[in-house]
Fold these 4 entries.
Entry 1:
Amino acid sequence: MAVQLKRWSRQEYDKMIDAGVFAEDERVELLEGEIVQVAAQHAGHATGAQAAEEALRLAYGTGFTIRTQLPLIVGPDSEPEPDVAVVRGHWRQFRTAHPSSALLVVEISDSSLDVDRHRRGRIYARAGIPEYWIVNLIDRVVEVYRDPRPDAGYGTRLVLGAALTITPLTMPSATIAVLDLLP
């Protein structure tokens, strides 16, 4: 007999959080119905998240919130906590509910590179997030994914080296040096 795993809905997951099922310092997230433990961060990952947060805060300015490692509701079975997400509006708007969309999501990646490319990419594309960046610490590049296709991930992938710049789709007046995103 095959073993079947229980798939959790976002509502069930949120009830578990509210009930204190997970310890305060336990880092978990809901990805496609599975509760996944998030690996501890090493210094390079943490520095990369801070670099992305700072660069995006400067690029987007007022009217946008730059959320770092906070929940994002992206479907009935997924509530990831991206390393950095750019959302429209002021942070006070999210006092009673997490945002359900983002303009841009950034993951800082080394050991999770395969998951970030495939699983997270599929989740973010399905949610219609227009742009997804992976700061690839292994190859010291930024992978830019655009053209979300709900059933097939992202249609466009660019790989940008440290000497290049990126212009976010939703902030065409801004230019970010790839080097500014790399720790």
Entry 2:
Amino acid sequence: MHRRSPALVLACASWIAAAACGPQPDLRTLKLQPTMSGYYDDGVQADGQNRLLPSLTFQLKNEGNLPVANVDLVLAFWQVGADGENDSKQIRGIGNTALEPGQTGEALTVRASIGYKSVAPRAEFFSNSFFKGFTVKVFAKLRGRTTPLGEFPVEPRLLPAARNDGRRP
């Protein structure tokens, strides 16, 4: 039977406590920079209707003084005038590799699962009386803390569907 030294256990506990109490990055220093928004053309569905999904492409920039890692993002898609969100997605915004001060991360694209379906031609979606825009509310989560990063309107424009080979049509 192995017996642990009380001094070793105390040293390890002190090291863990010191690491947990070190300076923590302020999530308010993360700036979300939208690069493109619109409605993703999800194609013609089995029922013959065209389907468009709100989509936001963005990058995160660390404007703080500390590196930031392991940040999750929650993106809530709200239809303009609605009482609650229509859909939400949680993604990993920054992984194990820290985003250093002054750096901008890679572009991320998130689209809702819920959007618009209609037999009307795609070009008529935005002029149709049923159309109401979407806003995306973005929140950052780190170690149990949640911080709002902003609200971003989805532009009323079509984003082309990606081809199987990854290129745009």
Entry 3:
Amino acid sequence: MNICSGCTLCCKVLGVEELAKARDVWCCHASKGTGCAIYAERPHTCRTFACLWLTQNLPPDARPDRVHGVLATTDDGSHVVLHEDPGWPGYASAALSTFFSTLTRDGKVSVVVRTGESMRTVGAAIPVVLQ
């Protein structure tokens, strides 16, 4: 099973309402390459989040800090979302393109790529709206 082990990219690309932390900016509690300074007291959103690299045991070359993007699912699990680091636009999409092809092959799964404020859908059977 994969572990974070110094990867903190979710602390940048994801928003955390409880901390009033916007997407695409580093959390003030993140210690890059180390982890969370308030790990024991981190908010519910952070406690319950697990990227697909962790939950699906993806290979080491798909680790978020290596591809500059965090893979997750929508709350209902119907879509995969790639939260790309806006400092590296397109890098994660390219690095994960083979994985996306496998996921979307049957047309039942869509991948949404979010880079900053822009979003695009890969292999979508139905349009995806994210908030």
Entry 4:
Amino acid sequence: MKRTLSITILAMVLAATIGLAPAAYAADTSADVSANGIGKLQAQGDGIAMLYGKGTVELSGNGTLWVKDNGGDAKIEVTGYGTKKEFPDGWIQYAGFHGNGNIRGSAMRVVLSGVDINLTAKGRGGAVLWGHGTYSINGITGQWSSNALTKPLTIAPSE
């Protein structure tokens, strides 16, 4: 029962993140942690790290990486092992990802699911961290959660 509930929550989070329900995040502006101006998120852990917004994401880990360039101007540099697949809806998947990535853009979504996740995001946007680990947003620290569907963390609010 517990495994089924975890998988259901995971599926809901992924569905919301990859665009099946993007309004769920846009309507919630009361994140657990917020910052004014340009923000910086650093996170380490195991689970799912989902980021959206404008800026730069540097990451490493082992698992599956998805990237979507909604702004049409992203610079995506991925090194390491894995299989790249591009989907008609604009998502790029790196299955079996074991490496590093540097993604920059004006409107992007980045999802990394796996272990040994280490990321730094700078810019405006938000993130959902589901699993086990730690994070810091502009010096304010916290823990990843896997107990419930968490609210997005605001890296920095939109202008």
